[in-house]
C-alpha cells in the first residue's frame, strides 16, 4: 500500500459568482468550512486563493485561480481544498486542463467539503467529469433563464438587478431618492451651462456627496456615466441603446438628456480642453501676426504670449499680462448680457436640437473625410498638392460647423443670464473657472491684442479689440 504523502503546502480556493452586497460573505463561509476540513486532516494551508463576484462559467479572468494554477505548476502546492468541485470550474474542458496540470505537478489530492476526488482512480475521475458536465449544463440553463428575464424586463421597462443601486434611486431601482435626484439635476444644469465633467466630479468630492457604495471618491467616468444615462431621463436602455420608456419616473426630461448627449458630441468634435488656470485660453490673437496667443507663466506671473517656432508659428513679439485682460473681457461680456441686442439675438434659438444634431453629424462626416484623405495620400493615391487643396476645403467646412455649434451651445450656457449681467458680476468671483470660461466663450468669438506702449505698467483698454459671437 502506497503511503499517503504528508500535505504541507495545501491551497484553499473559494469563489462566488455574484456578490450582491459586496461584503464577501459567501466566500467567507466557504473559507471557514475549507479551513475546518484542512484542520481535520492535519494539512498545513500555504495560501488561500479567493475570486469574489466572478463567474467560472463565462470564461472571465479569475486572477486568484490563475495564480493558484501557476503555484501548482511550480511545485509549491501539494493539495487543493475547495468547498465544491464547481467552485473550481463549471466548464468540462477547464476541468480536464486542471486535472492534467495537477497530474504533471504530482498533486494527487483534491478534497472538497462535499467529497474527495482521487485523480488516479478511474471511478473517481468519471464521477468528477459527470459532475463538471452537470454543473456546465446547469450554468447554461441558468444563463438562459436570466436572458429571458432580462428580455421580459426590457419589454416592460423594468430594471434589472446589480450589485449597486443606481444613483438617484432607491434600492428597488424604481423609486426616486429625492436628495440624490436634486444632485443629478444640478449636474445636468451645470454641465449644460459649460462646466466640465472633471469640475463636476471635483465638486461632488468637495461636497462629500456619498456614492451608492458609501464612499466619497467620485471619478469623472462615474459622473459621465450618470449624465449620459437614459435612466435619469426615464428611458429604458439595453446594451447601450434606448429601447423605450421606463417604468420608473424621470429625474430630468428626455429633451434635456438629448442636449447633454449633443454637448458631449460637440465637445469631442472640437477637441477643446476645459481651461484650468487661464480664462481666455484659445480666445486671444496677436495683433502683429494674427496667431493665437498661448498661456504662459513666469514665476508667479500669468501671461498670454505669442510664441514663435515650428510648433507655434507666431512672431514671438507680443505679451500681455493675464489678470488685467481677463478682467477687462469679463466686464465687457457681463455688460453685453444686459444689452437689448443680446436678448434679440437669442430670440428663436431655444428650439435648436435638430440643427444642433445636423451640425454635429456634419462635423463628424468632415473629420471622416479628412482621415480618408490622409489615408489616400499615405497610400500614394493622390499627390501632396491634391491632399493640401482638399484638406483646406474640408478644414473650412469643419471650422464653419464648429462655429455654429458653439453659437447654439451658447443658448444653454446663457439660459437665465441675459438681462442679469450686473447681478452676475457681483457673483462672478464665486463661479469656478469652467463656468466663467463657458459664459465668455458663449459671447466672445475672439479678441485681438494689439501692441502696447513700451514700459507701460497698466493695460491700455484700446489694445483689446473683441469680436463678438452674440
Automatic annotation (TrEMBL):
Residues 166-270 form the Recombinase domain. InterPro entries: DNA_bind_recomb_sf, DNA_bind_recombinase_dom, Resolv_N, Resolvase-like_N_sf, SSR_resolvase, Zn_ribbon_recom_dom. Residues 384-411 form a coiled coil. Residues 9-157 form the Resolvase/invertase-type recombinase catalytic domain. Transmembrane segments: none annotated. It comes from the Bacteria. Pfam families: Recombinase, Resolvase, Zn_ribbon_recom. Keywords: Coiled coil. One of its GO terms (molecular function) is DNA strand exchange activity. PANTHER family: DNA RECOMBINASE-RELATED, DNA-INVERTASE FROM LAMBDOID PROPHAGE. This is Recombinase family protein. It comes from Labedella phragmitis.
Amino acid at each position: 500500500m502506497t503511503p499517503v504523502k504528508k500535505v504541507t503546502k495545501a491551497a484553499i480556493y473559494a469563489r462566488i459568482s455574484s456578490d450582491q452586497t459586496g461584503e464577501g460573505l459567501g466566500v467567507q463561509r466557504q473559507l471557514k468550512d475549507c479551513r475546518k476540513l484542512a484542520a481535520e486532516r492535519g494539512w498545513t494551508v500555504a495560501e488561500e486563493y479567493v475570486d469574489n463576484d466572478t463567474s467560472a462559467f463565462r470564461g472571465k479572468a479569475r486572477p486568484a485561480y490563475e495564480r493558484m494554477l501557476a503555484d501548482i505548476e511550480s511545485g509549491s502546492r501539494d493539495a487543493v481544498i475547495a468547498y465544491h468541485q464547481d467552485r473550481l470550474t463549471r466548464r468540462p474542458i477547464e476541468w480536464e486542463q486542471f486535472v492534467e496540470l495537477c497530474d504533471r505537478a504530482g498533486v494527487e489530492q483534491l478534497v472538497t467539503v462535499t467529497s474527495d476526488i482521487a485523480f488516479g482512480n478511474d471511478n473517481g475521475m468519471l464521477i468528477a467529469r459527470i459532475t463538471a458536465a452537470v454543473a456546465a449544463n446547469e450554468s447554461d440553463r441558468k444563463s438562459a433563464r436570466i436572458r429571458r428575464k432580462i428580455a421580459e424586463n426590457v419589454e416592460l421597462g423594468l430594471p434589472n438587478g446589480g450589485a449597486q443601486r443606481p444613483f438617484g434611486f432607491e434600492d428597488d431601482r424604481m423609486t426616486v431618492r429625492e436628495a440624490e435626484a436634486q444632485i443629478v439635476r444640478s449636474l445636468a444644469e451645470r454641465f449644460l451651462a459649460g462646466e466640465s465633467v472633471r469640475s463636476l466630479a471635483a465638486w461632488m468630492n468637495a461636497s462629500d456627496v456619498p456614492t451608492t457604495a458609501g464612499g466619497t471618491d467620485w471619478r469623472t467616468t462615474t459622473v459621465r456615466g450618470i449624465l449620459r444615462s437614459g435612466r435619469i431621463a426615464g428611458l429604458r436602455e439595453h446594451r447601450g441603446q434606448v429601447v423605450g420608456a421606463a417604468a420608473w419616473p424621470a429625474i430630468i426630461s428626455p429633451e434635456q438628456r438629448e442636449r447633454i448627449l449633443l454637448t458631449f458630441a460637440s465637445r469631442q468634435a472640437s477637441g477643446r480642453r476645459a481651461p484650468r488656470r487661464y480664462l481666455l485660453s484659445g480666445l486671444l490673437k496677436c495683433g502683429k501676426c494674427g496667431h493665437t496667443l498661448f498661456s504662459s507663466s513666469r514665476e508667479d506671473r500669468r501671461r498670454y504670449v505669442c510664441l514663435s517656432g515650428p510648433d507655434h508659428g507666431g512672431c514671438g513679439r507680443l505679451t500681455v499680462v493675464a489678470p488685467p485682460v481677463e478682467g477687462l473681457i469679463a466686464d465687457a461680456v457681463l455688460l453685453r448680457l444686459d444689452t437689448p441686442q443680446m436678448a434679440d439675438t437669442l430670440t428663436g434659438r431655444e428650439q435648436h436640437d435638430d440643427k444642433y444634431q445636423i451640425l454635429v453629424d456634419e462635423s463628424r462626416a468632415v473629420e471622416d473625410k479628412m482621415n480618408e484623405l490622409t489615408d489616400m495620400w499615405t497610400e500614394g493615391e493622390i499627390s501632396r498638392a491634391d491632399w493640401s487643396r482638399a484638406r483646406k476645403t474640408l478644414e473650412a467646412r469643419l471650422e464653419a460647423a464648429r462655429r455654429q455649434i458653439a453659437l447654439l451651445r451658447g443658448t444653454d450656457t446663457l439660459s437665465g443670464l441675459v438681462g442679469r449681467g450686473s447681478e452676475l458680476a457681483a457673483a462672478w468671483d464665486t463661479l469656478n473657472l469652467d463656468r466663467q470660461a463657458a459664459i465668455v466663450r458663449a459671447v466672445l468669438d475672439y479678441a485681438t491684442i494689439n501692441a502696447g506702449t513700451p514700459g507701460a505698467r497698466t493695460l491700455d483698454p484700446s489694445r483689446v479689440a473683441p469680436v463678438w459671437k452674440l
